[in-house]
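Two proteins, back to back. First:
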Amino acid sequence: MDNQLKNQSQITDANAIIQVMEELLSPQRISAIEIFIVKHSLLGYTYHEMANISSYTTAYIKEIGSQLWQDLSTVMGRRITKKNLNVLLNKYKYRTNQDDFTLEQFSPEIKVKLPRLSVELLQFPDGSLSLDSPYYIKHPSIEDQIFAELQQPGCVIRIKAPRHFGKTSLLHRLSVFAQEQEFKSVYLDFQEADETIFACLNQFLRWFCSNITQKLALPVNLNDYWDEEIGSKVSCRVYFEKYLLPKLDCPLVLLLDEVNRIFEHSNIALDFLPMLRAWHEQAKNVRIWQKLRLVVAHATEVYVPLRLNQSPFNVGLLITLPQFTIAQVQELAACYALNWYNHQRMQNAMFLRAMVGGHPYLTHLALHYLYLQKGEITLEKLLETAPTQTGIYRHYLQNLLVILEDELFLKDAFCQVVMRNEGVQLNALTAYKLESLGLIQLQGDLAYVSCQLYRLYFRQQLQCS
């Protein structure tokens, strides 16, 4: 009796899996022999055993099966075999049954992307996304612009955005692009530096040069080029000019992440940043410096009164990462098996975007939470509690609240913004800081609150009146 129930369950699973396979491989139809192979693969039959109970030869069954697994692997974006068929497709089947989800309603690009999601371990949406993460939402126009700029000798690209906007994820993809162009690529995260590294410029620049050299798999040879009498900035330039760059027979793409860490150390920032600018200027006249392409990424929350005419932040291509559009919210929702392309549910994307302003991290977090709850909570309920002390954004909002409470002039100015539906004119420095925090958007000289979440939460917490 137990075996009979088990076989019946396996047959039911097989029928559901075949239905999903038909959707994946559409318009290709699943043949009778393929259905036979799938059903008996799930029952644990070998190809030889399948041949013994059919009119097909072992070689023919193996050939048809191998082609089927190859076709599925192409669509799924990972290797599929008769041994993992049950696990992978059952996970996908479960997700496709959620929220009236059907593959036909998505573009070919998303069709290929969706099956890959189902077999990935669901990760909390914090930190950078892996290169093969299906949750990465592209900004095609921005990425194409950066790719084109990286081809230019001696270029500088500046990427800025509030925290959790996807800067690091983008940098890793730029690194891959650089390697595809047969460039050398070095990613350097300033968060990896010990606090003691920032004690003095000389120590910091030696750390900087040593890290890059090691990542290029070259011997660290600082002492031969470092001369205290000419200073650490000149020594650093000489090291690149006479040692590192000549060692390379291709351009070097230097990806500097979390540069805002340097902002916290004015003794470093006011020398290091102008040095990078000087290297960019060198590329206009000195051929060796044309090998270097700089990509500088930083969070906008940190503000230091840098001398802008001496920093790299007013040269090169400026990229400000945007908020998600409605279409991108829909695409990410599809990644979480939510069919917000459906006409009746399209407003969900609009409501979520209105609440969080298209903020990538806040959007991810909401969709992640909806998926985990598996129908136990609606989007309406989630948005209702979002601006409260028990909502899913409470920790993120509390961090912003601490900043505002420490800067009374920012608090007072932001209160003006959240209490009015029309734009508010603020002085330039205040507007710059609030925009850097992501709290406001500027339209001309007028400041508007970035999203409804901030309006509702801070109106209450700051006791604005």
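And the second protein:
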Amino acid sequence: MNQQRQHEQKTLILSDIIQGGDEKEVYRKVAGIINARKPSRLIGIGDTISKYASSFELEKHFFSDTNDFLSHLHEFTFRDETILVKGARSFGFEKISRALQQKAHETVLQINLNSLVHNLNYFRSQLKPGTRIMAMVKAFSYGSGSFEIANLLQYHKTDYLAVAYADEGVALRISGISLPIMVMNPEPGSFDTMIRYQLEPEVYSFRVLEMVAEAVKRSGSNEPLPIHIKLDTGMHRLGFQPTDIDKLIRELGENTQLKVQSVFSHLAASDADVHKDFTLLQISRFKEMSGKITATLKYPVLSHILNSAGIIRYPAAQYDMVRLGIGLYGVGVGDEEQKKLENVSTLKTTISQINHLKKGETVGYNCRGLLAKDSVIATVAIGYADGFGRELGNGKGQMWVNGKPAPVVGDVCMDMCMIDITGIAAHEGDEVIIFDNIAALRQMAKAMNTIPYEVLTGLSGRVKRIYTHE
């Protein structure tokens, strides 16, 4: 709970501890842990924990069981706070979770934080001693959440975070993230804000270099602003060209209000064996270009070029730091690497209604779902506004109901779609899995004629994120 720093107010809801051993000793230890962590208040549920109320040195409330607490829920104000709900299964705390949820949308993305930590540690194990990690948390951490993921990465001592735009970095700072944050797409109007919130801009052109320098002068700061120099080694998206390096060195020498924190480039095709020669060429160019810059500076500068795929495929180019993106979220390069990673995200929804329809009837917009036989059709609570693309309609996509595949019937609607559950034992309200492993995610991406990146980042903000951490 203390990893989550976005709210000052913290409430712990805790049931009786169901385990063997000396009861007094158990609650002495539990009280010691809670008193040391200092949550704002404790809500204890169960007759046993209530007996030891005097052991807890904070605001506290006790109830005999879950229903007793729920009957008094209206007496509490839960607002702008982090709530840890921890209870033995027999107490049915899922009732409390449902009562406290901010969003009632039945389509949820469940994020396994243990799996994310596993993946982080796997990539760490592939690095040379001293090589740092910059974790990508741009685009809502690839759809997985913002401060929730950043807090976890900070707790596990990641060295750097990277966001796309200044607004993303500001939100993390407000939520209590203190790690260095690089902004990869700084906009002209955001430099003053970045200085105020101690964000570090990527500088990829002379125009951006000049604007950043002017912003530092306006701020009146006596401290130089850390910047990250982007070199174009062949992707041709953003970055200084080889012919720019001499001029860049001169201007960096003149701008004493700026400090080069790192020099980096981006590999265009590190995950493709067919482009190995091109990737090696990029690395060679980077070594030459970055070496010229760092040799002229009178202080240490980090160098980095490897992304998730590069970490595994080009270990000789780790330099001082690597940038960990999609691999952190469980998507690996190749079957062998995939076996070593754990799935982080599960997308699921529920059945809203079940209809028994006759052969020849149609389902959905434009009557495209023409039934070739008598069928059982379920309407589920996910549509293209949630990120389940229209490309998945008419049999191209599928979901899983009670462990069995159910193809999409007809066009995908904005807020829902229909699936064929003929022959599957199911009821209204049952859970439906869209993907719960990387193979299913890749299959969905292929059906949408895209890549897993787009599927994950395209999941709407209205899809409720649920985090599990053991």
